From TrEMBL, chain A:
Protein name: Succinate dehydrogenase cytochrome b subunit
Species whose genome carries this gene: Aequorivita antarctica
Membrane-spanning ranges: 12-33, 53-79, 100-121, 157-175, 196-216
Keywords recorded for this protein, A-Z: Membrane, Transmembrane, Transmembrane helix
InterPro entries on file: Cytochrome_b-558, SQR/QFR_C/D
Automatic annotation (TrEMBL), chain B:
EC number: 1.3.5.1
Superkingdom assignment: Bacteria
GO molecular function: 2 iron, 2 sulfur cluster binding; 3 iron, 4 sulfur cluster binding; 4 iron, 4 sulfur cluster binding; electron transfer activity; metal ion binding; succinate dehydrogenase (quinone) activity
Co-factor(s): [4Fe-4S] cluster; [3Fe-4S] cluster; [2Fe-2S] cluster
Cofactor comment: Binds 1 [4Fe-4S] cluster. Binds 1 [3Fe-4S] cluster.
Iron among keywords: yes
Protein name: Fumarate reductase iron-sulfur subunit
NCBIfam families xref list: dhsB (TIGR00384), PRK07570.1 (NF005746)
Gene3D superfamilies: 3.10.20.30, Alpha-helical ferredoxin
Length: 220, 248
């Protein structure tokens, strides 16, 4: 079981949990974009996700475990890495040889974690209360109005947009880096890296578009 | 050229160090960085002060001894050169240059700018070799066919001089570029495949034991490496390690 304590195994664990979350983001975005295209589809897909036994009983717990694992492992790695250089340089020019995003995954990760807290407060906890505590009757049309309501506030919309910018920076380094961690290095690497960079911009930008669309749509 | 040097001075491994300021004059652009330090030391000795201690040996970019963090970068602002190959023309008259030792828990300071890099030796000793019978019946290496691309990549990995710039540049003080170069140079050759499994497991275990940080793929090591060792070696080592771990 020495592998579990090795630096490479930790890298691979971070990479695999990160890739799982990247996949989840694409699925989340696909559902959310329907709120812009067709609110009825958004309602029906949200209702399915909120009441399907497989999604609720298996996929959701796996997702929560994946998120918790990713951030706990991230913190453990950060602590260990800080410990590897106990006396810091008086002069250290990290920007000469690496990107801000790659050096500050812990900062972008911490912002995303704080955002997840807000996101759970906004959507997940009210959903749990609605379904299991208040035991309200099934209503497959409530999701879009609830979503619109959340994006009334310019502060909340701004916070969401800020978090998505940090998500883009996190993905910019993390997505392509995960393949390097798993030893992926062949003729497809360049193309794959290009795809990861596109994804890192496209998905967060899409989420920002949705947040702004919902915010401005109700004003007019 | 007139310069102001801020140099890390530390009496020994147990005392606390600090940056001390030394003005220096008469530096020519064609001097190497180490020659500039020689001029400084000559002046200090003439004044009866203790010279600055720094590592150096071949002074032609081969031995990997010179290891200075210069203005926040290992081996200074130039690329693909060691400190001894760095010329003073890279600096301007009136510049302030901050000179520090490579920093890592696994590279403790011995004195001033000299650090103990024997952690690298121990990683190498853990598996960075092939076991060949040299008792008179050694087979000529040239009789074993080697793919040209593999031979080239192996040679590129083997150009690592173990200077420690990768560790110094990495924000996590990770030694993965060094270790992966040493793993790769053998993993790519048929002679090295025989002991590939235990090699990668033992070298990574030793690297972790020495207290180096985890690689987070910032790529700083590749940029600062005086020999241009590629990050592809780290991907190869990760692959080798995972495959070796699964084999048990």
């Amino acid at each position: 079981m020495a592998i579990l304590n090795s630096s490479i195994a930790r890298k691979v664990a971070m990479a695999l949990s990160g890739l799982f979350l990247v996949f989840f983001l694409a699925q989340h975005f696909t559902i959310n974009i329907t709120s812009v295209i067709d609110p009825d589809t958004f309602n029906s897909w949200s209702h399915f996700m909120g009441h399907n036994i497989l999604v609720q009983g298996i996929l959701q717990p796996i997702l929560i475990l994946g998120v918790v694992f990713h951030f706990i492992m991230g913190i453990i790695l950060e602590v260990r890495n800080n410990n590897a250089r106990q006396i810091s340089y008086k002069s250290f020019k990290g920007n000469k040889n690496s990107t801000w995003a790659s050096r500050n995954m812990i900062i972008s990760g911490a912002v995303i974690l704080a955002f997840l807290g807000l996101h759970f407060y906004d959507f997940w906890f009210p959903e749990i209360v609605h379904k299991y505590i208040e035991s309200n009757p099934l209503d497959a049309t409530r999701y879009y109005p609830e979503l619109l309501h959340k994006f009334e506030s310019p502060v909340r919309t701004g916070l969401y947009c800020l978090a998505f910018v940090l998500l883009a920076l996190h993905l910019w380094h993390g997505f392509s880096s995960s393949f390097q961690s798993m030893g992926w290095n062949n003729k497809y690497s360049k193309g794959l890296r290009g795809f990861t960079k596109f994804y890192a911009i496209f998905i967060p930008l899409g989420f920002i578009f949705i947040a702004l669309y919902l915010h401005f749509n109700q004003i007019h | 050229m007139k310069l102001t040097l801020k140099i890390w001075r530390q009496k020994n491994a147990t005392t606390k160090g600090e940056l001390k300021t030394y003005p220096i004059d008469g530096i020519e652009g064609d001097m190497s960085f180490l020659e500039m330090l020689d001029v400084l030391n000559e002046g200090l000795i003439n004044k009866g002060e203790e010279p600055v201690v720094f590592d150096h040996d071949c002074r032609e970019g081969i031995c990997g001894s010179c290891s200075l963090q210069i203005n926040g970068e290992p081996h200074g602002p130039d690329r693909l050169v060691t400190t001894c190959q760095l010329h003073m023309r890279m600096f301007n008259d009136g510049d302030t240059i901050v000179i520090e030792p490579f920093r890592a828990k696994a590279f403790p300071v011995i004195k001033d700018l000299v650090v103990d890099r024997s952690a690298f030796d121990r990683i190498q000793q853990a598996g960075g070799f092939i076991s060949v019978n040299t008792s008179g019946n050694t087979i000529d290496a040239n009789t074993i066919p080697v793919n040209k691309d593999d031979a080239d990549e192996s040679f590129n990995a083997a150009t690592c001089i173990g200077c420690g710039a990768c560790v110094a540049a990495c924000k996590n003080a990770s030694a993965m570029l060094f270790t992966s170069a040493k793993v790769s140079q053998f993993a790519l050759l048929p002679q090295g495949r025989i002991e590939a499994t235990e090699r990668v497991l033992n070298m990574v275990a030793q690297m972790d034991k020495e207290g180096f940080g985890n690689c987070t793929n910032t790529g700083a090591c590749e940029i600062e490496c005086p020999k241009g060792i590629s990050l592809e070696n780290i991907a190869r080592m990760n692959r080798e390690y995972l495959s070796a771990s699964l084999k048990g």
